[in-house]
Amino acid sequence: MSMLSSIPMETLIVWGAALQAFLIVLFVWNALLVRDVKAKRMRAIQQQQKELQNKSLAAVKHGLKRPKVMGFVNKVVKKLNVLRTREAEKVIDDLAQAGYRSKEALNIYFFFRFSLPFAFGALAMVWLYVLGMGDLQPMGRMLVAIVAVLIGAYAPKIFVINQAQKRGDALQKALPDALDLMVVCAEAGLSLDMALKRVSKEMMGPNPEMAEELSLTAMELGFLPNRADALANLNKRTNMEGLRAVVGTLQQTERYGTPLAQSLRVLSQEFRTERMLRAEEKAAKLPATLTVPMILFIMPALFIVLLGPAIIRAVAVFPNF
Question: For the Type II secretion system protein GspF domain, which residue ranges apply (predicted)?
């Protein structure tokens, strides 16, 4: 304390200003820093490759230190004993289609599936009965509480479905480009495994979702005893009509030795035509879609601009009218 009192006030002010300037520069630099999403994705895929290899080789499980929150979630889900049910198998497929494949994701899903109804119901009860918000009849309050519980029960499922739909749309858009690259790799003499790895590397920037799926399929083709299982897993993870056609072509190539490049070229042309037709359909729907926004937002402003001066002059000429 005596040491601080011996320092002049001007010096302390200068040090404080310098520290503040350093923190501001650090904050601005952190906000403007461009993060390498591609490297993060590659690290995630490599980590998943190690997990798949360990699982296939039946390695000894090792204990990992998890955060306390994750440990609590795992404990609650284990007490509920829902991981061995048929519902859990279906949820695993749904989470895989949404891009979540770890066991922790399954535990988190079931934890929120069982805890959110109680949390939403408790919040509704506190809001209605304790705080007295909302001038409702007893039956209306009960209905609001029931609706809150239902929202909490279905919120995790709706979230997973929404994520799966977004991921499916991204995969559908990138499928023709991925097939073109696979055709080039096949004509260059690469095997199916190497072609998938090369295409996944090239697709990492434009479409990380497609790159991740193809990379996982290439890894499974490398170490699974039955190569057909790797292609079937791709079908299960994506659940897309386009990729089912691609998987069928790859399985036919693996089984009968048919030319891979020619089959993929035909599929790529079909998917490009389909994508063009979807774009033309959206363009044809655009005038009808813009009708309501034009009526609500553009027409009132247009009437104000056209009739506003006339109304102002009429009021000025006939003030007592």
Answer: 179-307
Evaluate if residue 93 carries a pLDDT over 60.
yes
Both tokens of 202, joined, read: 């090239």
Asked if residue 105 belongs to a domain, the reply is no
Residue 119 lies in a domain: no
Please give the residue range of the domain that contains residue 246: 170-276
String of DSSP letters for 136-164? --HHHHHHHHHHHHHHHHHHHHHHHHHHH
Angle 78-80-84 from CA coordinates, rounded to 5°: 70
* 295 part of a folded domain: no
Could you read off the pLDDT of 294-321 as tens digits, one per residue?
888 888 888 888 888 888 888 888 776 5
Q: Which two tokens stand for residue 29?
A: 């630099």
* Burial letters 221-248, b for 16+ CB under 10 A, else e: bbebeebeebbebbeebbebebbeebbe
Q: How many domains does the chain have?
A: 1
Six-digit token pair at 220?
A: 């499974």
8 A C-beta contact, residue 128 and residue 139: no
CA dihedral 23, 25, 30, 33 (to 10 degrees): -170
- Confidence label for 173 from pLDDT (cuts 50, 70 and 90): confident
Dihedrals φ, ψ of 258, to 5°? Answer: -70, 160
Q: What share of the chain is helix, strand, coil (3-state, %, to 5)?
A: 85, 0, 15
Helix, strand, or coil here: 309?
helix
